[in-house]
Amino acid sequence: xxxxxxxxxxxxxxxxxxxxxxxxxxxxxxxxxxxxxxxxxxxxxxxxxxxxxxxxxxxxxxxxxxxxxxxxxxxxxxxxxxxxxxxxxxxxxxxxxxxxxxxxxxxxxxxxxxxxxxxxxxxxxxxxxxxxxxxxxxxxxxxxxxxxxxxxxxxxxxxxxxxxxxxxxxxxxxxxx
Amino acid sequence: xxxxxxxxxxxxxxxxxxxxxxxxxxxxxxxxxxxxxxxxxxxxxxxxxxxxxxxxxxxxxxxxxxxxxxxxxxxxxxxxxxxxxxxxxxxxxxxxxxxxxxxxxxxxxxxxxxxxxxxxxxxxxxxxxxxxxxxxxxxxxxxxxxxxxxxxxxxxxxxxxxxxxxxxxxxxxxxxx
DNA sequence: TTTTCCATGTAACTCGTTACATGATTTC
DNA sequence: GAAATCATGTAACGAGTTACATGGAAAA
Lengths: 177, 177
What we know:
63% helix, homodimer, 3 strands, DNA-binding, 8% strand, mainly alpha
């Protein structure tokens, strides 16, 4: 549903065609989400069928015609519903990386430390990139800020985990192989 | 891949049948992941075909026979690969809830505050539940800890966001409707 | 005796992805 | 003339879900 909210929200500001929407999302909203081309075209078709948006063709010369989408009244109502639902509910987060941690005692502690240091490096790079992101207009800077806060928290936690495996590494005889 | 790692990791400790695996994951690992029954049976079939695990039937009386799975040598190797990959890479997290935030200026600030307070409530409840979780054995307590750290970070950030919309609410004339 | 638990699965569907196809137009 | 960009899509696949089907055993 989040992607539908995204498309409706963008079309609410100004009419756009599919290529344009995909381009904008992949370029300017990449930190926060993504939307592949086939998905964009598929969702736009679907929402047209449901009456949330309307199409009209625009052709410039011999180029492939653009299908420009416009938010309808029903679409505006749907946008309001989705937005309120999105704001009122926390998005559930699952950390796939935790599954490896469950089985970390299958490896020697020193190995775990080496692997987690790699993870730490990638995380730190993401954080640096987020901090280097240019100042954004309107409410979008909240998203960047969220990302920074989250990555800082992840880094801090990871450091405590690494420290513990480091301690275990200097007290050998802990792993199961 | 994470679910395959999970199944291989559990089968590495002891042989189990599908029902048992599903049960264990949904009951004891619910904070960290989930695995529906059809998915479990499907993955077990797939991994059997790939030679990572082997089956043997066990029948008790007239009950439906159990298909007990056992990790093979190839499965152990695959487990090692998946585990190292999992530990060395940070899991990318996308916050669906951020998309609503991008469009928060479509609503009156006071409305946004009310909706985010709801989100805050649900988040606080999750945190309380995580804190109330019983002490866990081995490396699993890391997962609980991770969840607590993350939820605390989310709550703190959400509070700053709410504060800002609250400030905007007392300075009216900010929204676009 | 009816419900719950044990134990297996299938079928249909949703959501999203990758890879591919088409063809004009601008840029190098 | 070749390559990148604009603009649309289709087809095949992957991962996962819900709902449904089956049938015996234990518990209420």
